[in-house]
Amino acid sequence: MSPVTAKDTKDASVREPEHTGGRRRILHTMGTIALVCVAVLPAIAALVFLVALPSARVYQRGQPHSKPAVERPATPARDSAGRQKDQEASRLRRDEAFWNARLELAKQETISLAVDLVDSVASLDIHGVPVRNCRIRRIEVSSAVRFLQNRGDWRGRMSKPLVVRSEDATIPKEPLRVTEAPKDTIEAMKLAARPVPSDSMDVFFTLYFDGNLSLTVRQFEKPSSEGSKRHARFRFKENYRQAKKAVTAIVHSKVPQHQMRIEVAVSQDDAKAIYRALGPKAGIALRL
Amino acid sequence: MKKFSVRRFHIPRFVAAAIVSIVLAAAVVCYAPALREWTLGVLPGPRIGRGSDAGSPREVAKLQTRVRNLGKQFEALTPRKPYLIVDSANNRIQLMSGKKIIHQGICSTGSYVLLKAGDKREWVFKTPKGRFHVQLKEERPVWHKPDWAFIEEGLPVPPVGAKERFETGVLGDYALHLGRGYLIHGTLYKRLLGMPVTHGCVRLDDPDLEVIYKNMAVGSAVFIY
């Protein structure tokens, strides 16, 4: 048996180029497909846990469990009239919940906010007296609200004031300026001559409530360049908070809950007045 | 033409796959709220009118009455007598009678200055918020200057009851006391009206102050937000 030399090996590969190359190519393609599958697996898992399951949960919660109280004949005209009445009843029940919450807030010492998305008005109330009515110029309501607003437990929740658990804003609640006492009258005169700082800032704020509900109030006016940066930071913080919550839920083997957002745009003055007026743990009444 | 390839930079395929995997998963995490919104947006909404939501004409009529009564109950909370609303965020006032505005103007409210005296004493000059009532009405009021008024001016603080503590003419022609030392009064610094410059009181221009003084009685409500 003669020893195999490098030349012989080279010759062998030259002799069977198509056979070996084809197998290699197949193996390479299969490897790539397997890698792609493995690569998209975390994304698919994230889609299932962060999108599909929370959405399915909201969808399921929105479906009525009970059977119709009265079976109606299926004639189109009667069915349509019945549906109108049902919708009217549903709307009235939501209105009743709103007024109950507002009356409950009237008993409290703190300043409260009533957001009426039906009439597009946000009102600051003190002891049941509307002290500022703000016209809402734009409304965005989370799709999840559509599924839950007619549920009995949701209405029950809305008939009591929503309490602000935390908040995030682009303006300070109290624009405090620290001043050291002057040593003499000359220094005092210098201090008194200082111009009053302008307090016109772009206003965006979010109030977070229990049950994954949040209300974002933003100014309708286009923000300045500085305001845009602040707004971008504000949005980033909000998204980061949501992502963190979702990851924490997954780590604890729970299905993350969908954050139901309600966003309204009012004038800058209104937004500032609302944010500064509301104290910690302020109460909100919501009409949808 | 040179081709860009992963192989060219000697990145193993599994490293490239790991990077793609992380980027994709991160994108899903970031866009999950938007994707959920989209998913819920395309799903058909729940049917109304089943079970407890079914609205018979009688039920609708009952609900209508209840909602109307609740609205009336809420409206009854508005004072019958004239009342004042002070917007401390934008330094505006409105004198109201029921739901009607009978007078409006500008004012000055708390400056939000935190004055540090150096001896651990400090004051925050802000206008309190909430519902107040006029406790006392006064013509040609005399200002009883507190300690901070001297500290702020770099002056020595006189003893309690010293005559330097009493100043006339600086509060305008009228003052309405709201309690805890807070007043609605006039001012000498008219150019600063509309700005947050006070020590917590509400300063008004003379004509506005006169209208408010004449319309508001002792016990009238003042709402500050």
The global form of chain A is flat
Derived from helix and strand composition plus strand pairing, the structural class of chain A reads: alpha+beta
Q: Based on helices, strands and strand pairing, what is the structural class of chain B?
A: alpha+beta
* Series of H and E elements of chain A: HHHEEEEHHEEEHEEHEHE
Q: How many strand units of chain A?
A: 11
Round the Cα radius of gyration of chain B to an integer and report it: 31 Å
Q: How does the major sheet of chain B shape up?
A: 9 strands, mixed
Radius of gyration of chain A: 31 Å
Specify the overall morphology of chain B: flat
Please, what is the oligomeric state?
Answer: heterodimer
Q: Could you describe the largest sheet of chain A, including whether it forms a barrel?
A: 5 strands, mixed
Q: Which chain pair has the greatest contact?
A: A-B, 95 and 79 residues
Tally the beta strands of chain B. 13
Second rung of CATH, namely the architecture of the domain at 84-176 and 201-287 in chain A: Beta Barrel
* Number of alpha- plus pi-helical segments of chain B: 4
- Fraction of helical residues of chain B: 25-40%
End-to-end gap of chain B: 70 Å
What name is given to the CATH topology of the largest domain in chain B?
L,D-transpeptidase catalytic domain-like
- Classified by CATH, the class of the domain at 84-176 and 201-287 in chain A is Mainly Beta
* CATH homologous superfamily (4th level) name of the domain at 84-176 and 201-287 in chain A: L,D-transpeptidase catalytic domain-like
Low-confidence stretches of chain B: none
Description:
By secondary structure, chain A is of the alpha+beta class. Chain A has a domain at 84-176 and 201-287: Beta Barrel (L,D-transpeptidase catalytic domain-like), CATH 2.40.440. Chain A is built from 8 helices and 11 strands. Chain A has helices at residues 6-15, 17-62, 76-106, 143-148, 152-158, 185-192, 225-251, 268-277; strands at residues 111-116, 121-126, 129-135, 138-141, 162-163, 166-169, 177-180, 204-209, 213-219, 260-266, 283-287. In chain A, the strands form 2 sheets. Chain A has a 5-stranded mixed sheet with strand order 3-2-1-11-5, with helices on both faces. In chain A, helix 3 (76-106) runs parallel beside helix 5 (152-158). The longest helix of chain A is centred in the first third of the chain and has 46 residues, at 17-62. Chain A is flat, with a radius of gyration of 31 Å. Chain A starts with 5 loop residues before the first helix and ends with a strand. The model of chain A has no long low-confidence stretch (mean pLDDT 84). The longest helix of chain B is centred in the first third of the chain and has 30 residues, at 13-42. Chain B has 4 helices and 13 strands. The mean pLDDT of chain B is 89. Chain B has 2 domains: 1-43, no CATH class; 83-224, L,D-transpeptidase catalytic domain-like (Beta Barrel). Chain B is flat, with a radius of gyration of 31 Å. Helices cover 29% and strands 26% of the residues of chain B. The N and C termini of chain B lie far apart (70 Å). Chain B is of the alpha+beta class and 225 residues long. In chain B, strand 4 and strand 5 (122-124) form a beta hairpin. A 9-stranded mixed sheet of chain B has the order 6-13-1-2-3-12-11-10-7, with helices on one face. Chains A and B meet through helix 2, helix 3, strand 3, helix 4 and strand 7 of A and helix 1, helix 2, strand 1 and strand 4 of B.
